Amino acid sequence: xxxxxxxDSTHPSPNLMSVVDFIFYSLGAVCAYLxxxxxxxxxxxxxxPSFVSFQxxxxxxxxxxxxxxxxxxxxVYALYASYGYAKEEISTLFIAGFxxxxxxxxxxxxxxxxxxxKKTCILFGILYTLSCFTKHFxxxxxxxxxxxxxxxxxxxxxxxxxxxxVCEHNEQRFAPSLLGGTFSQAYFCNSIVxxxxxxxxxxxxxxxxxxxxxxxxxxxxCAAILLTIGxxxxxxxxxxxxxxxxxxxxxxMQMASTVIVQNQEVVIAGACQSLFEGAMYTFx
Length: 284
Hints:
Number of strands: 0
Shape: globular
Helix content: over 70%
């Protein structure tokens, strides 16, 4: 019964959807106006054809990988519920994923610096694809493995890709002022990808339905396809770069702690990011 109630809750009433549609299109109009005023796609005078190619390549990979993440979010809880798991068991699965992300997130920077950021980005694609594959099984321990893999992959997604881009940007000797444009394009388009992923996920779940309700595994299969595309582009087109491979992990942690203590702006930025992410995950 719990699983059925959870699945029924994924189909809101028409009145609620009309309100949601109104808010969605209103905010979409505001975003379109802001995009028109700021124009994140305007190329700076110091940009070159090689930089534009580099920027488009990175933004494409970033959006494909982020799209794979956006596709999965709305269906994780519903999928677990459809397998008959109670709230307590689903909570355990979620905590395992967030815990893996928290633990690995502490060392992911040093890990990528040591083995190479390109290799680490490829590792992300492999781990997250495996995580998507586990969703085809209802066994609790297989799903737990998937959550652990997904937690580790999430830490990589939100750190290593940007680290690779910044390092490669500097190694190619592009103007430092051009970095902001790359970040602007990536995150502006990411908002569009997030909305599109919701529509694609819904389409996949309903199109590949087995006749007994939405196919809640289909969005994860779509995510795996995107991961395969993104990982292939990384493997074929990206150059390898490294960070500080000589400093021990504990020494790097000590240096990071010193920067946090001495630089108030880093503390404020980290606190704002943590509070925002915490609020979002609490809501989700």
